[in-house]
Every structure is written in structure tokens, then in C-alpha cells.
């Protein structure tokens, strides 16, 4: 069919851009409110040594769910602390609690409204269907644009993903209240609010709490996804382990998430009917807990405010002492952490996320001429799009100028000699790569952008294919990371291989799996190894199982990048 494509994506992009500008004040208010509440929760949970919270949670679990589960809670939390994931666990619990609080505040009233108004129910139900079936990753895209990189978009995405059970179960619980009870309430002259508060909600509470419990579990399941946009916690530890193929760390962080899930699940299930209510009335027990939380929040808030002694006009204060990073497994992130240590930037934090999230945050700041510091590398389309500069690096924390290498599996030369020759002879310049990158950034399909460059640079491509045997449909699997540079180079070389008779498959992975895949022979090669510094850790680990074909691009550079309108020139200026 030759029907033109409906520009649905373009319409949605235009809508999101308009919403971002028109409601920027509202989004800033929401961001500030969520961050403030989250800080209070984190301060309360982290007040004092870990053993205090461990004891409090253990006692709470014993009270709600009996002593065997209390022993499990004590042992599991002590293990989390021993493994070194206590701070991450605090962040994760805080994120889940805040997401759960938002689902209760918004979800229960909407569920009540749906139960009372059929029209509302008809409108809300398909929206909930959409929210539950749409991949959770999709929620992160507008969340980044609206709220920036960090914990807030992660919480918003978790809230959207998790709210449906609370709404559905609240609606179901109220509708299942026996009609004869409603009729009796009407006969005694009860108002609508009296019927709701004294008849419907008390009877529907078990069902509503089941929905809240499911929402909390769904919010917890989002912690790894939320880490893609910079949300801290155990999700970031899991993401980091996956990107670095660190099985042990991944298991430890995952096990910590399981422990927290079990504890929160049992507490939320039994809040209404605590196991030992006969020994201590729940109103009294929860009142003690509430007073303890409020007092701790006030004390920690006062201490934090007193200790705050930052220069409000400094670069650090203007950027909230945050450096916007990319994927946690990227070599440039290790270099950035090294720079923080080398330059003694003790107040600064490196925000983990993704390359796309970093680029989005840079665009938002640049459009409003706000200060921002990002981990950057060249070649990259952002240097063509924006007026940027690298901060000077006297200590060489980010290393010298690097090369990008082509690396293939052992045995490829014998299995596909023509493809091996093309990959071996593949070399181009940063200017060539940037042309492809700019086209992709302007929403051209990567394969189309690659084909465009190949047609305009036939002489260079001829040098790559010189003397190479043509293929007969042999499969070649190339692997790459989702960096703009690697998307460009991998699509170009893939298109050249296809034009020479090979059936090419592209696989997008993280850095660690990229090297591991070539080393174990599950993929044929990559053109994305930044050496000798950025990917040095992975290269050393797998070099005996790889074939390094040498440089395909010379002149890359890593470092901290800022807009030129910022009055700062060196990393030393961040002290």
C-alpha cells in the first residue's frame, strides 16, 4: 500500500514540546515538591545508624505479621547492610513509599468517582487499559522532558505504571458493597458523604488495601527502569551490574530488592488487621510510629538547614552540585568519577541515566540559558547543534585523545573473509561520522542516513571494500552501544556489508555485553571500542579472546562539557 505515513509521532512531539513550554512552571513546582518530600523521607529513614531503622522495621513487621517474619526481616536487613547496599535500599524504599503515597492520594478518589459515576468509569477504564499495556519505558520519555533527569521522572513513571490497581480495586470494592446496606443507609436519611465514609469505605477497605498493595509492588518493580533516567537506589545498582556483566553485584542488588519487596508486601497486607492487635491497639501503635516519624523529620530538617553553607552564586549551587552523566557502565562514567576524586569535588554528584536523557537535559538547559555540566565526548552531534566547550582537564582524569577500534571474534576471517576484509579496512574521520549523526538526530532513520552518506562518499567506501570477496548471504551479527557515535558507525558499516552480499543483523546492548558477546563468539564484531582509556577495563578483561583490527576513527575526546555562555573553563573551577 502506498498510503503516506500518518505523522503521528511528529504530532505527539509537537504536543509534548508545547506542553513542556506552556506548563514549565507547573512542572517545576511538581519537581520541587516531589524532591522536597523525598528528601524528608530519605532523611527520616537514614537518621542515625542503620540498626535503628532495622529494629523499627523488625518491630513493625512483628506487630503486623507475627514474629517468624520479624526474624526474616531482621536477618535480611542486616544482610543488606553487610553487603553494602543500605544507602541504596533507603533510596529505593523512599521512592516506593512516595510512589505509593501518590497512588493512594490520587487513585482512591478516582476509584470512588468511577464507582459513583458510570460516565467517569467508561472514560477512565480505557485509559487504565492503555496505562497498563503501554511499555513502562515509554513513560520515561515525556517524564524526562517535563521533569528533567533524576529521581522525579522515575517516580512519576512509577506512579503512572502503578496507579491502575488502586483505582480498579477501589471501584470494585465500593461496587461490591451489598445493596441492602445502601438501602438501609438511605432509609435512615444518610447523606452521600455519610454513606461513603461510614458504610461503603469501611466495607470496601480490604479490597482497596489489596489494590494499594499491588500498586506498591508494581512501583517496586519499576526501580530498575527508573534508574535509566537517573533515579538512585537498588535499581541503579542492578542496571550498573547488567551493563558491566557483574553477576555477583547484580545478584546481591536483586536479592536486596526481593527482601524489601517481601517486607513491604507483608506490612501493607496486614496493616488493617495486625497480628498482635490484642496486645497493643493499632491506633496506639501507629500513633507512636507517626509521632516518631514527625519528630525525626523536624529534627533532621533543622540539622540539615543549619548545616547548609553553600555559596548561592557558585556554579555548584546553580547546578545543584550535579554532573549529568549517561549509562552507569560507560567508560566515561568511570572517568568522571575519577575526576571527582582527582579534583576533590566532594560536594558533587554524578547523575547516572542514559545518553538520551543527558541530551534531553542539555537541550532544556541550553534553550533557557541555564548552567549545566554533562559528561560529553567528541565527535557528537551536540557540538554541531549547540555552542559547547570541554572543561580543561589538567590532571588528565579523562585521558588523552582516543581512537575507536574495530574488534571481531576469533574465526571470522576463516568463516567470512570478505566481511573480515571490509571491517579491517573500515576507517573514516570525525567529520564523516558527524554528518551521519546530525541526520539521525534530525529524525532520519539510521539506515537511511547511512545510505545517504555512502552514496555521497563512494570513493571512501571503495577503499573499504577493495579486494574483499563478495558474500553469499552469510549472516554477520554486529553489536553496538546506544551512543550516537556507535549508532552512526555501525549502521554505515552494516549497510556496506549488505551491499556486498552479507545478511547483517544489528544488536544494541550495553558496553559489558558488547565485549563479552564478541569474546564468546555469539556475535561477529563491533566498530565501537574506545581505546586506550574509555573501554580499557573491558578490553583488558577480554583481549585474549578478541581480534583487534585497529583504529577505524582517530581523534575522539572525553570530558566534562558546558555551554560556552557559562563563565567556567576548567574542572578545577568546580572546587
UniProtKB/TrEMBL annotation:
Per its UniProt record, what Gene3D superfamilies does this chain match? Dipeptide-binding Protein, Domain 3, Glycine betaine-binding periplasmic protein, domain 2, MetI-like
Membrane topology designation: Multi-pass membrane protein
Q: Kindly indicate whether the keyword Transmembrane helix belongs to this entry.
A: yes
Q: Has UniProt tagged this entry with the keyword Repeat?
A: no
Where does it live in the cell? Cell membrane; Membrane
The entry's keywords: Cell membrane, Membrane, Transmembrane, Transmembrane helix, Transport
Read off the PROSITE patterns from this record. ABC_TM1
Annotated ABC transmembrane type-1 domain residues: 89-268
Superkingdom classification of source: Bacteria
- Regions that span the bilayer: 12-34, 40-62, 69-86, 92-115, 136-164, 216-235, 247-264, 284-303
Q: What broad class describes the main subcellular location of this protein?
A: membrane
Family affiliation: In the N-terminal section; belongs to the binding-protein-dependent transport system permease family. In the C-terminal section; belongs to the OsmX family.
- Put simply, this protein is called ABC transmembrane type-1 domain-containing protein
Q: Which organism is it from?
A: Neobacillus rhizosphaerae
Amino acid at each position: 500500500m502506498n498510503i503516506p505515513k500518518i505523522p503521528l509521532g511528529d504530532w505527539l512531539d509537537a504536543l509534548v514540546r508545547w506542553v513542556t513550554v506552556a506548563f514549565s512552571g507547573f512542572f517545576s513546582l511538581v519537581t520541587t515538591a516531589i524532591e522536597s518530600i523525598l528528601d524528608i523521607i530519605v532523611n527520616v529513614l537514614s537518621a542515625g545508624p542503620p540498626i535503628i531503622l532495622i529494629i523499627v522495621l523488625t518491630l513493625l513487621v512483628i506487630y503486623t505479621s507475627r514474629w517468624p517474619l520479624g526474624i526474616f526481616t531482621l536477618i535480611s536487613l542486616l544482610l543488606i547492610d553487610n553487603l553494602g547496599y543500605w544507602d541504596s535500599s533507603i533510596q529505593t524504599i523512599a521512592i516506593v513509599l512516595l510512589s505509593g503515597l501518590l497512588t493512594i492520594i490520587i487513585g482512591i478518589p478516582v476509584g470512588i468517582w468511577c464507582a459513583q459515576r458510570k460516565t467517569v468509569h467508561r472514560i477512565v477504564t480505557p485509559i487504565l487499559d492503555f496505562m497498563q499495556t503501554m511499555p513502562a519505558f515509554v513513560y520515561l520519555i515525556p517524564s524526562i522532558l517535563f521533569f528533567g533527569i533524576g529521581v522525579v521522572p522515575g517516580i512519576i513513571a512509577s506512579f503512572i505504571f502503578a496507579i491502575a490497581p488502586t483505582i480498579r480495586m477501589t471501584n470494585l470494592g465500593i461496587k461490591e458493597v451489598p445493596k441492602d446496606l445502601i438501602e438501609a443507609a438511605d432509609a435512615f436519611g444518610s447523606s452521600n458523604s455519610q454513606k461513603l465514609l461510614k458504610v461503603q469505605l469501611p466495607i470496601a477497605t480490604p479490597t482497596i488495601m489489596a489494590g494499594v498493595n499491588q500498586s506498591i509492588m508494581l512501583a517496586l518493580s519499576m526501580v530498575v527502569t527508573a534508574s535509566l533516567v537517573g533515579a538512585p537506589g537498588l535499581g541503579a545498582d542492578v542496571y550498573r551490574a547488567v551493563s558491566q556483566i557483574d553477576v555477583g553485584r547484580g545478584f546481591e542488588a536483586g536479592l536486596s530488592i526481593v527482601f524489601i519487596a517481601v517486607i513491604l508486601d507483608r506490612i501493607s497486607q496486614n496493616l488493617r488487621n495486625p497480628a498482635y492487635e490484642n496486645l497493643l491497639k493499632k491506633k496506639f501503635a501507629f500513633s507512636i510510629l507517626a509521632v516518631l516519624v514527625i519528630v525525626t523529620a523536624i529534627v533532621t530538617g533543622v540539622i540539615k538547614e543549619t548545616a547548609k553553607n553553600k555559596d548561592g552564586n557558585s556554579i555548584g549551587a546553580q547546578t545543584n552540585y550535579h554532573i549529568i552523566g549517561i549509562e552507569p557502565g560507560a567508560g566515561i562514567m568511570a572517568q568522571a568519577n575519577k575526576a571527582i576524586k582527582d579534583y576533590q569535588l566532594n560536594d558533587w554528584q554524578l547523575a547516572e541515566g542514559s545518553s538520551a536523557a543527558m541530551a534531553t537535559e542539555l537541550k532544556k538547559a541550553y534553550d533557557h540559558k541555564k548552567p549545566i555540566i554533562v559528561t560529553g565526548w567528541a565527535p557528537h552531534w551536540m557540538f554541531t547543534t549547540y555552542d559547547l566547550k570541554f572543561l580543561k582537564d589538567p590532571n588528565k582524569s579523562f585521558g588523552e585523545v582516543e581512537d575507536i577500534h574495530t574488534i571481531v571474534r576469533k574465526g571470522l576471517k576463516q568463516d567470512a573473509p570478505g566481511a573480515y576484509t571490509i571491517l579491517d579496512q573500515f576507517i573514516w574521520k570525525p567529520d564523516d561520522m558527524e554528518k551521519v549523526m546530525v541526520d539521525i538526530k534530525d529524525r532520519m532513520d539510521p539506515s537511511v542516513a547511512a545510505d545517504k552518506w555512502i552514496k555521497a562518499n563512494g570513493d571512501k567506501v571503495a577503499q573499504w571494500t577493495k579486494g574483499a570477496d563478495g558474500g553469499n548471504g552469510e549472516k554477520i551479527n554486529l553489536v553496538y552501544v546506544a551512543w550516537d557515535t556507535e549508532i552512526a558507525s555501525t549502521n554505515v558499516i552494516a549497510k556496506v556489508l549488505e551491499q556486498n552480499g552479507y545478511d547483517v543483523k544489528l544488536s544494541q546492548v550495553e558496553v559489558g555485553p558488547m565485549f563479552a558477546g564478541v569474546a564468546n563468539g555469539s556475535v561477529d564484531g563491533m566498530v565501537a571500542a574506545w581505546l586506550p582509556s574509555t573501554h580499557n577495563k573491558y578490553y583488558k578483561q577480554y583481549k585474549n579472546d578478541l581480534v583487534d583490527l585497529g583504529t577505524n576513527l582517530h581523534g575522539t575526546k572525553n570530558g566534562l562539557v558546558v555551554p560556552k555562555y557559562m563563565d567556567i573553563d576548567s574542572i578545577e573551577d568546580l572546587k
